[in-house]
Design brief:
- The protein contains 14 helices and 15 strands.
- By secondary structure, it is α/β, with parallel strands linked by helices.
- The protein has two domains: 187 residues, NAD(P)-binding Rossmann-like Domain (Rossmann fold); 186 residues, Dihydrodipicolinate Reductase, domain 2 (2-Layer Sandwich), CATH 3.30.360.10.
- It has a seven-stranded mixed β-sheet with strand order 6-5-4-3-7-8-9. It has a six-stranded mixed β-sheet with strand order 11-13-12-10-14-15. It has a two-stranded antiparallel ribbon with strand order 1-2.
- Helix 2 crosses helix 14.
- The longest helix is centred in the N-terminal third of the chain and has 21 residues.
- The protein is globular, with a radius of gyration of 24 Å.
- The mean pLDDT is 94.
- Bound molecules: NADP nicotinamide-adenine-dinucleotide phosphate.
- NADP nicotinamide-adenine-dinucleotide phosphate (NAP) binds next to helix 2 and helix 14.
- The site of NADP nicotinamide-adenine-dinucleotide phosphate has 26 residues, from helix 2 and helix 14.
């Protein structure tokens, strides 16, 4: 405690914490999920806290960190030792208890950050909104459930004037959703979106098309680099790409459902029902199928797993969505893709046949965590002190 002199020479007791709270905009973060993305995000937030206070007058305090079993809560914000503290002091919890705790401590400017991949957790978004939280999410599920849930979520947010940002749902840290949203809101007519949306499938077909290599060898390399899900059929079935395409379509206010995306499943029929270990033990079983596909390419073509949104995009119900393996010209932008990069071509009326192109690392926990951090900062800038 220190003493500050008021103009009339009366001494007013104060403290460093009080001054900090007056000087800086206080933001209270509830981080759900601390796996690869969530864990890195918490470390990034804690590492940047003092700098953000100095430079932006924003104090981002991570007040709660939870996984599916326990939560660690500290109303003043957690520090670098959050992992060990959570192991020692983590308590079981329910969502209503967590929300009640925020209210009991008078926490305002609250943001719930979903870094799970859980389909059931997204049902908690509504109670968080009702309790005054804004939302940030790397979890795609809430944006790919039925239109009824999607629209209801947005109505509730609008009613309470709260934000929900999810830039990392498509293209990880790339500034894609924001760009599409801005183009659409500014009245620019988007006529087509097309690209390679999956880092793992980008790597697999970039290499498979460029080298005389067996398909299973490339897939093994992708697994070893950590590019695929533990069961790579989750990548090869195309559903994750289809979800990303659906999210982009909905950003254009198109009314569409997941089952309207025509998806080419890349897993040969007999291998779809195998247990994971049996599938992983016999990856060469994929070779014959992909060898025959590669043989159909002309010499100046390469294979790419391409997502396309087109149709009559001025009509709410006019979207056509395809996700499929295509032979594209080697010298096209998609054909020149390298490594595990993603690429998004956005065609609009004003830009004509020259699309806006966004390209770069479209996956990976580091860039995803940075993207989530960016969403948190955007909301923090908007809320009042
Ligand atoms: N990794 C990437 O490169 C990447 C890129 C773009 C987007 N994403 C998205 O980012 C999200 C997180 O990915 P990740 O790689 O960090 O996953 P992860 O390592 O599997 O971590 C998931 C975390 O969520 C927790 N969790 C699961 N269900 C929960 C529930 N019902 N309630 C509370 N916590 C729960 C898990 O805790 P338990 O231990 O209790 O299960 C774990 O801490 C996913 O939606 C993913 O699609 C990831």
């Amino acid at each position: 405690m220190s003493l500050v002199k008021a103009p009339d020479n009366i001494l007013i007791p104060t403290s460093k914490i009080d001054l900090d709270k007056i000087r800086n905009k206080q933001i209270h973060l509830f981080i759900i999920g601390h796996g690869q993305v969530g864990g890195l995000l918490i470390d990034q937030l804690i590492a940047e806290r003092e700098k953000l206070k100095r430079r932006r007058r924003i104090d981002l305090a991570v007040v709660a960190v939870a996984n599916s079993s326990t939560v660690l809560f500290d109303k003043d914000g957690l520090d670098k030792d959050w992992r060990s503290r959570k192991q020692e002091q983590g308590e079981s919890y329910t969502i209503p208890q967590l929300i009640e705790r925020a209210h009991r401590h008078g926490l305002y400017n609250t943001i719930m950050v979903d870094n799970t991949a859980s389909p059931s957790f997204v049902l908690n978004y509504l109670p968080f909104i009702e309790a005054g939280f804004s939302l940030v999410s790397s979890n795609k599920v809430a944006n790919t459930l039925g239109m009824e849930f999607y629209e209801n979520l947005r109505e509730r947010l609008a009613k309470r004037q709260q934000d929900y940002l999810y830039e990392t749902n498509v293209g990880a840290g790339l500034p894609l959703i924001d760009t599409i949203k801005l183009l659409h809101l500014s009245g620019e007519n988007i006529t087509q979106i097309r690209g390679v949306f999956s880092g793992s499938l980008s790597y697999i077909f970039n290499r498979f098309s460029a080298e005389q290599i067996a398909f299973h060898k490339v897939l093994e390399a992708a697994i070893a680099k950590g590019y695929t899900e533990p069961d790579p059929r989750e990548d090869l079935c195309g559903n994750d790409v289809a979800r990303k395409l659906l999210i982009l379509a909905r950003e254009l206010a198109l009314h569409c459902e997941f089952d309207e995306v025509a998806v080419e499943n890349l897993i040969p029929e007999p291998l779809r029902g195998l247990p994971t270990t049996a599938f992983l033990d016999d990856l060469p079983a994929l070779d014959a199928h992909f060898e025959s596909v590669r043989a159909c390419c002309d010499k100046d073509e390469v294979l790419r797993y391409v997502a396309t949104l087109d149709g009559d995009l001025a009509d709410d119900f006019g979207a056509q969505m395809f996700v499929r393996l295509e032979a594209v010209p080697k010298n096209s932008m998609l054909g020149q893709l390298q490594g595990s990069d993603s690429i998004f071509e956005i065609y609009t009326e004003s830009y004509g046949s020259n699309p806006i192109v966004i390209q770069g690392a479209g996956a990976g926990p580091q860039v995803t965590a940075r993207g989530v951090f960016g969403d948190i900062l955007r909301i923090s800038e908007r809320v009042s002190a």
